[in-house]
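hey
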């Protein structure tokens, strides 16, 4: 079963930045549209950004202008650059395709303090 591996989370103050990484060991990664998902405490998991195999991106309104999603197909890796972080960005961040169809990984915790 394919399971993404997320990394790069941490604790930062509001206004800070983090860069998340997601590696997927799947031979078809380069043709899959992928997304970053966030689960805030007490809330349902939501998708915050997505990217097609060709690099077309889409963002939730809450992160637009602050987050940038990208991918390196040669490395089967996807990234999420998060700038101007806010306390409401706190949560566990996961990556998956847009089904989502992969097993969920353990995610990476992001904590933003005010």
């Amino acid at each position: 079963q394919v399971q993404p591996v997320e990394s790069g989370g941490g604790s930062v103050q509001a206004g800070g930045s983090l860069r998340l990484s997601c590696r997927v060991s799947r031979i078809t990664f380069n043709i899959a549209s992928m997304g970053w998902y966030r689960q805030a405490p007490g809330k349902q998991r939501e998708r915050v950004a997505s990217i097609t195999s060709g690099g077309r991106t889409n963002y939730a309104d809450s992160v637009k202008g602050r987050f940038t999603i990208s991918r390196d197909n040669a490395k089967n890796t996807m990234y999420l650059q998060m700038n101007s972080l806010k306390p409401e960005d706190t949560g566990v961040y996961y990556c998956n395709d847009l089904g989502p169809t992969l097993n969920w990984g353990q995610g990476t915790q992001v904590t933003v303090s005010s």
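The CA atoms of residues 11 and 111 lie 5 Å apart. The mean pLDDT is 95.
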